[in-house]
Each structure stands twice: as structure tokens, then as C-alpha cells.
Amino acid sequence: MDELSLFGFSEPLARLGAFATIFLALTVLELAAPRLERAELAGALKSRRWFTNLSIVLLSSLALRLVFPLAAVGTALWAQEAQIGLFAHLALPGWLAGLIAFVVLDFVIWLEHLASHKWSLLWRIHQMHHADTGIDLTTALRFHPLEIVLSMVWKAAIIIALGAPPIAVLLFEIVLNGAAMFNHANLYLPPSVDRVLRLVIVTPDMHRTHHSTDRRETDSNYGFNFSFWDRLFATYTARPRRGERDIEVGLKEWRGKEPMQLWWSLLLPFRHRAR
């Protein structure tokens, strides 16, 4: 199987470089222009949250490597080599096939996120992500290893069905990861900028509403990249009822320091159903 590269960098280096650059940039921006000023987002509590959230992403990456070593890009390379999937039988220009694959993948991730809130079994796993009481860019990395593996299986099935171009899958993975960190960031954007951006992409204020303890707001704004899916399927909420600065994030059932603990978070799906 051929190795994929982007701008002369191998796929792992391209992804790691993009992740590190976006992570460092958003860390600086959060410090320079925070949206919320809360104990969970500063000092010792922030350090505890970051340790837990970063530990979770490392464990999730290890689990994915062990269970599904091909991952998304490897699956796309395999499908291309085997000449299977929709695009293998259509005479489409590469750029058009890539664009369609990117948009379809974004929709299926939106659909997966919706299912994670509507299907109780998936919610048991997904609730660990929502248990974080201090949303910032590290919350974007706080997904249970089980959820990461299940998400990859779903994504791989769509990639194979489409025969998605590997370069489009690589770009999608980089953009999805970067967009998730951006829209989870504790970052203030001027209202005029937020209003324009959210016409197309999900902004921090838009996604923070999804992390509200208010069930009506949690069950809205499911997008990660494009914002128009929520408008199209009537799951869009413009503003939280308590306002941008007074919003309460997390789960009502867990308002203490438990979500900041690594093992408590990992065992949450097996301990309690928060609905």
C-alpha cells in the first residue's frame, strides 16, 4: 500500500504538525482573549482538567492504533488500491470527488453526533465528553476510547462505500481535528465576526451552546465543521438562554470535581446513565 504525503510530509507528520500548530495557536489565543473567566479554566483546576483530557486523547489514540490500525487514511488507500466504492466507477475529476467526499464525511460525522445524543447506548459513552465542566480546546480531545473506535468504524464504512480519495480523507481528518479544537476553544470573537463565520462554520459560541446543562440546548448545534447541517435539519440554537457569559456547561448530574479525574471519566459509561 502506497504511503500518502501532503506538501512533501508523510501522513503522520502532516497530521501531527497540523495538530501541534493549531493547538499552540489556540492556547495562546485562549490566554489572550478568553470568552469565560471561571475557576475550571484557570490555575490548579485547569491543570487537572488538562491532565485528564490530554491523557484521554493519548489513551484513545493508543486504542485506535491497536484495534483499527488502518484508521481513516489507511482505509481510503486500501479502497483505492482495491478499486472499490462509488468513485471507482464514476469518471469524476479528482477535485470534484474529493470535494463531494469531504462534504459527505462532514455530514456523516454530524449524523453520528446526533445519534450519540438520541441512542441511549451511544449516549452512555458520549456523555464523558459532555461531563467536562470547563469547556476549552482540550475538551475537543476528550472522547472516550470506545467512542473513538466506534466513530472510526463508521467513518471507514462510509470511506469504503464512497471510494473516497485518500488525499481528501487526510484533509478532512486534519480539518475536523482543527475545527473541533477551534469551536471548543474558550475564545472570544467579536459578535460581527462570529455572525459571519457561523453562516458556514461552527464557532466557539455556537458549539458552547451544545455543551449547556440545559437539555434543550444540548440537543442542538451538533456540527463540527459546517454549521448549515443544523439549520437544514432544524437543530440550530442561536444563543443559550442564560447568555454567552452565564451559560452553565457540563452535565447537571456531575457538578463537582469528578469529571476532572481520569479514571472516573473513563469508567463513567459503565457507572451511570446521565439521562
TrEMBL record:
Domain of life: Bacteria
UniProt entry tagged with the keyword Zinc: no
Record's protein name: Sterol desaturase family protein
InterPro entries the record matches: Fatty_acid_hydroxylase (IPR006694), Sterol_desaturase/TMEM195 (IPR051689)
Keywords: Lipid metabolism, Membrane, Oxidoreductase, Transmembrane, Transmembrane helix
Keyword Iron: no
UniProt-annotated location(s): Endomembrane system
Primary localization: membrane
Positions of transmembrane segments: 12-33, 54-78, 90-111, 152-176
Segments forming domain Fatty acid hydroxylase: 99-235
Topology with respect to the bilayer: Multi-pass membrane protein
